[in-house]
Amino acid sequence: MLEVLEALLFLAFDYAPALVFASLGAVLSERAGVVNVGVEGMMRAGAFAAAVGALVVPTPLGVVLGMLAGACLGAVHAYLCIRWRSEQVVSGMAINLVALAAGTFLLEALFAPTGTPPIAQLERWSLPLLKEVPIVRAASGHSALTYLALALPLAFHLALWRTAFGLRVRAAGEKPAAAETLGVSVSGVRYACVVGAGLLAGLGGATLSTSTLDRFEHHMPAGLGFMAVAAMVFGRWTPLGAFAASAFFSLGNALRIGVASSAPAVLQVVPQGFLLALPYALTLLVLGLQRRRGAAPAALGVPYDPETR
Amino acid sequence: MDGVSLEIAPGDRLALVGENGAGKSSLMNVLYGLYQPDRGTISADGRPVRLRSPKDAIALGIGMVHQHFMLVPSLTVAENVVLGREPTRRGLLDLDRACAEVEQTCRRFGFGLEVRTRIESLTVGSQQKVEIVKALHRGAKTLILDEPTAVLTPQESDELFKVARELSSAGHAVVLISHKLKEVLSFATRVAVMRRGKKVAEVPAEKTTPEELAALTVGSELSRETNGARGPKKPGAPVLELERATCRTADGRKALLEVTLSVREGEVVGIAGVDGNGQQELAELVTGLRPLEGGKLRLCAEEVRRLDPSLARRMGVAHVPEDRLLWAVVGPMSVEENISLGRQHLPPFSHGGLVDSRGRRQRACSLIRDFDIRPPDPQAALSRLSGGNQQKVVVSRELDCAPRLLVVVQPTRGLDVASVALVHRRLAKERERGCGVLLVSLDLDEVLALSDRIYVLYGGRVTGELERASFDERRIGRLMLGAEEATFA
Amino acid sequence: MRERLIRGALPSVLSVAAALLLCFAAIAVVAASAKVALDAYLAMVWGGLGDLPRFLDGAGVAVLARPWGEAATKAGLLALTGLSVAVAFKAGLFNIGAQGQMILGAIAAAFLGAQLELPALVHPLLCISGAAVAGGLYGLLPAALKLRRGVHEVISTIMLNWIAVSLVENWLVVGPLRARASGDLSISGTDEIAATAQLPRLLGETSRLHAGFLVAVAAAVLLHLWLSRTRLGFETRAVGLAPEAARASGIPVHGRIYQAMALSGALAGMAGALLVLGTEHKFPATIGAPYGFDGIAIALIGQNHPLGVLATALLFGALRAGGTRMQLFGVHKSFPELIQGLALLFVAGRMVWDHLLALSKRKRPAEEAPRA
Amino acid sequence: KKSEPAQEQPRPAEPKKHAVGLVTDVGGRGDHSFNDSALRGLELWAAGVAFEGSAYKPVTREEVRRSLAEDVARLEPPVEPLGVRPLVVQSKAQEDYEPNLQLLVDQGAALTVGVGFMLENAVEAVARRNPGSKFLLIDSPLLDAKGNPVKLPNVRTVVFREEEGSFLVGALAGLVSKKQVGFVGGMEIPLIKKFEAGFKAGVKSTAPKTAVLSSYTGTFDNVAAGKQIAQDMLAKGVDVIFHAAGSDGLGVIQAVKEARSSGKEVYGIGVDSDQHHLAPEAMLTSMIKRVDLAVYQAARDLVEGKLAATDVVLGLKEGGVGYALVRAEFPGKAEALAKIEELRRRIVAGEIDVPSNSAELEAFQAAP
Ligand SMILES: Nc1ncnc2c1ncn2[C@@H]1O[C@H](COP(=O)(O)OP(=O)(O)OP(=O)(O)O)[C@@H](O)[C@H]1O
Ligand SMILES: Nc1ncnc2c1ncn2[C@@H]1O[C@H](COP(=O)(O)OP(=O)(O)OP(=O)(O)O)[C@@H](O)[C@H]1O
Ligand SMILES: [Mg+2]
Ligand SMILES: [Mg+2]
């Protein structure tokens, strides 16, 4: 029994970081008022660039390259949405489709259609003390990114609610005109946040290709970017909420896998497909039952034009 | 806005007056760096400057209290005030210091504000104070107040002016925009009058009177011909009756409080009031856009419990709303499509579920001719028409329905003189036809000129009802400002 | 009228052209030879539009008919999912759920096709209707969640896509509806549909061009007529462009949104039916290609105009069918998708196009003036 | 109106140089198992070329010989390049199989290989349409709409007795494992169930008390899914994992590699090709399925003009399945290998009937 629980936690610790990073990115962007459904594409760019980078440079540097690649797509999104006031969802979907196609194309052109050659994976840290304690030892044996994913939501929480920049971000997402009249550059804040979201989504992608696996695989991130957006909504646009939602999704996924191997009898009663659908159905249910929907920033999705009131 | 020049010196107390839409706010927004001027220059301390954003203006010591709230509802008072120049400690926002600083500013200027409460839980009066504190907190040398007293109580206004006077004697310049001429004259040293984007006069305050200012503001364009042309009043059965009707605004505040009024056939009923006193909600209530929360609503003597726009239309209610781009037209659609809107399911606009494009075209062309809509192209996208012509499309469409009750809000806003006269004539014609007209306008002269009866709204309540015979501009003005509670006859 | 058509279509045409050019350059750079790129592009063109050179060499109609068939098959699917996205757009909703609705439609068609015994013409029609109903009902879910509970449709449709994949591909197709084969033989997907349910091939056995293509074309034309000529279509457009104005003029806004989403889901469901009844003749193990997501690109590049969507779908259907042949020149299989993605990105930057076009227009008279 | 594209020669090819087409399933090139095995048979062995970047480079006879496993190298006649011209098209989706096969026929392929049972319908349709061309279908006989086998005069089909090879690696796993062993399958289909049944029977025959955890990813091309399942098993104490999951298996091997580097004594067993190179320290062996040989032999038969439309079944006896060289070192390796060879001999001799589905597995009695 303990083993089963431990396996569950271990899997969740391995699977969650990518989701956590990407959903934090989504929170950042949307808090500043820019809808970001392009997370999926930014993650893909990050995963690809990190893996390709790690073929040449040390893997941690590859991760940085992945973040930069995500940031580049973030910058495209920001430019279209902020400078040109494009429809934000459309721009995001365009970024997804471009990243999907370009990723596949480059992968085929440079390597094989299914994936890059393996790279040196990020080092896994085994925590000396934890390692001995049952259950808790599931937290040992992950890459640094897992521990970063545990710390970052808190840092983001502080950043959004306890720093001057965070205040400006929230103001830009709630009432950009008010921020602008106080001398805050709404465009500047939004650029920073959307590019930052790209950076984080890129980190999420890089996590997939350098920590979760040891290569870029043609499916990556296989819908995880959309899950990240869902986690953000589920978590009501807060870093801690997004973290909790990511953890929920990861545990759900781990549970499904764990059930399949240790309790095959369950699958006779509840088909695998139902277990697969469960986290999504639950998410919909919770979103549908939420009473207020005041959680979304008031100016979310509205391009800001200083000359309209 | 066109060729306006203005000079402000330290210690000045300048007032800016003019009709709704005269361009007062626009001018100040240019000064504050929010709008970019097409031509002309701004100079500070004798040097020409370029204000790319409010940041530049703030750096020059300009502070502005906007006509519409510029507050982030989900943040606290202190956060709103310090936004943009936040005190930090070791990289973190120092909220305690922020609160202390803001509290100090409040105390210095005599505003009692609880700085840790969220804006959304404050009354509008307190929100207005936060706006002023925001500007003062930045040590503005030049303070622009755009209709700051519109939502303040008289005592609060007095306090505000006391502070403003102190500031000006300490060398600050204050620019006040207001529609309340009395406070303008008591506060300002100079008064500039704007009309249709131009500055038409600038006079020292002590050398002018409210009457003179009013005349300058309105000009003499508003033709009173409709006065002469109107027939005697012969109202019939009531088409609209409200009995102790209550409703809320979109954000949940009470907008109308136990309003009782009626409109009869062949009668124009005007609603007078300062913007934001419930006129908007009244119009929406009657046209089914806003649910009734308490009281009764009767259309043509029939009590209606759940009015929706479609039922309202079927019962003969037509509506010329204030915000036409939001409520009345579909910008990307063509003029003819917009003309069919609301009656798209009826001949001549459609037959048996299919759009009758010939019938629609013919009807559109005839309305375009009647109302002189330009360009006279029924297929032009509505958004490409000028604002005035868009308004004409809406008015023509609504009058074309042969309504029993016509609800018109600001029907002539943005129209030129000829079109204003046209619309007024058509409203009078509707009245002759036996239609009841509910006219909401911020332009008191228009209300006075067209109405057979006037209700005055203040704070969501009817504060007065006057028959045409007893129209008294001054008394209405007092009622509009809540300075007098009418005794119902 | 003509001017409006040009103004509406020009940014899309320019976007596609720019994407094609950029990709041409990409191939030329990767292969270090413009010749390869040219050959590959020609192969794509002939593979999509029919191999004209070989036909002229006397190779028989098959070299024309087969590419047509493949292009039309893909175009039909893309057109229907594109229309699905477009009609939701018209009502102001961003339907990312075409994929899920298509899966529902496909499984319904596969089920009805295999289980019922009906005469030849009735059977496919019934299957398509069943698919439309399944997709339509699935499309109503996000509408209901949005209108009743305020759940944004982008989120709910993404979730519903996953749910559809999980329940259909990971349960029905591998569970209750799995195909039976004798012995230990493996076949994937569901039972094959009855021969009566198969959509008839239009050019005989040489080409896979089937009646489903006509269904897609008809859907585009009918949708165009519906939007432009009927009262409901007019009201739907008004709801999408200005919901408050629509409400104020007495249009039942919620009703129109439900209707549009049902229609949107039905169109996506029909795409699923086409795949099953036209070429696969069963629900395959997975609906591998993300036609639902492609539909977003097709709809946006086609400016959400039914005929624009049809034209875009035809173009990309041909590009994709022909794109396979590029592999013979060492060009990669994902190429058509790359062109499509880039074209969409350029369309998303439409404001930039408009700006540039306006600039060039403004410049021209200014340049000519001094000469005159 | 009827045309015979097979007879058209698109461009003046070298005389007598047969074109052999191959359509991969959606797994595609680079799966390090099934598709790559088929491609090796065609490209490297039959055509003597290697696919690099986006073009073919010729390789020497010597290099081809070096790529052969011991048992293949011993074969008579020897495996050496036949000078055929490979035409490879990868599929993006199920509905692409048929046009892709047809495209290759149109391009002049005298023989076209459909890799994987998923191409069964497409091969059947295209073969009917092009009676003048020959086809090879891997992993499935031709089936009619009701799922019963049918024959076509121009189609050779090859199926393998995967259960026999799986039995041997299962027996080895049972000998190596100290706790429990695991099986990770791809899609839950009879083909993969054959691997599972054989593997479980093998474990039962050498370690009747050892539990076998088994789980399916549901796909063949999702590396991450494979890894997660393997991680879960490893955390539950599994120390030998066998996979039959296409690309997903790369994830399984990845998980084993990671567990090993964190100090666990665990092994992976590869599938289809020798997957030793993917994780040299962590691979026990691989269950070999000679798709490469099947493709190569069909190409050779084509060149020699004796390609017959037969339904070929390849098991241990025919050398169609087996296991790769065991390079890992573990205590008692020599005895273990001797035991495995003994089992192999008995299967070939027909003394052991290896189960190929769960019902047969129930009935299977571990041989003494
Ligand atoms: N961003 C804008 N775009 C288009 N028109 C605008 C914009 N801002 C203001 N206007 C128009 O310019 C005119 C002047 O508006 P402004 O707000 O300056 O009037 P105002 O004098 O302040 O009136 P009020 O007393 O009602 O506040 C109005 O007709 C208004 O509709
Ligand atoms: N986007 C556009 N493209 C081309 N022409 C336009 C566009 N927008 C407006 N116009 C045209 O420019 C002219 C001026 O429009 P504008 O709204 O400035 O008029 P206006 O002077 O405010 O008139 P009104 O008093 O009726 O509001 C109109 O004839 C209108 O048709
Ligand atoms: Mg103003
Ligand atoms: Mg105008």
* Overall 3D form of chain C: globular
CATH architecture annotation of the largest domain in chain B: 3-Layer(aba) Sandwich
Query: How many individual helices of chain B?
Result: 18
Examine the coordinates and then state which fold CATH places here, giving the name of the CATH topology of chain C: ABC transporter involved in vitamin B12 uptake, BtuC
Helix content of chain B: 25-40%
> How much of the polypeptide of chain C forms β-strand, as a percent range?
under 5%
What is the end-to-end distance of chain C?
31 Å
Key terms:
heterotetramer, A: 309 residues, ABC transporter involved in vitamin B12 uptake, BtuC, two-stranded antiparallel sheet, B: 489 residues, alpha/beta, Rossmann fold, 6-stranded mixed sheet, 18 helices, 22 strands, 35% helix, 22% strand, binds adenosine-5'-triphosphate, binds magnesium ion
Description:
Chain A has one domain: ABC transporter involved in vitamin B12 uptake, BtuC (Orthogonal Bundle). In chain A, 71% of the residues lie in helices and 1% in strands. Chain A has helices at 2-31, 39-56, 59-83, 88-110, 144-162, 164-174, 176-181, 186-212, 224-234, 239-262, 264-269, 272-289; strands at 124-125, 142-143. Chain A has a two-stranded antiparallel sheet. The relative contact order of chain A is 0.21. With 489 residues, chain B is of the alpha/beta class. Chain B folds into 3 domains: 13-218, Rossmann fold (3-Layer(aba) Sandwich); 234-316 and 403-489, Rossmann fold; 333-400, no CATH class. Helix content of chain B is 35%, strand content 22%. In chain B, the strands form 6 sheets. A 6-stranded mixed beta sheet of chain B has the order 4-7-8-1-9-10, with helices on both faces. In chain B, strands 16-19-20-13-21-22 form a 6-stranded mixed beta sheet, with helices on both faces. A 4-stranded antiparallel beta sheet of chain B has the order 12-11-14-15, covered by helices on one side. The longest helix of chain B is centred in the C-terminal third of the chain and has 17 residues, at 417-433. Chain C is mainly α and 372 residues long. Chain C is globular, with a radius of gyration of 22 Å. Chain C starts with a helix and ends with a helix. Chain D is 38% helix and 21% strand. Classes of the chains: A mainly alpha (309), B alpha/beta (489), C mainly alpha (372), D alpha/beta (368). At the C-D interface, helix 4, helix 11 and helix 13 of C face strand 4, helix 4, helix 5 and helix 7 of D. The structure holds adenosine-5'-triphosphate (2 copies) and magnesium ion (2 copies). One adenosine-5'-triphosphate binds at residues 384-389, 414, 416 of chain B.
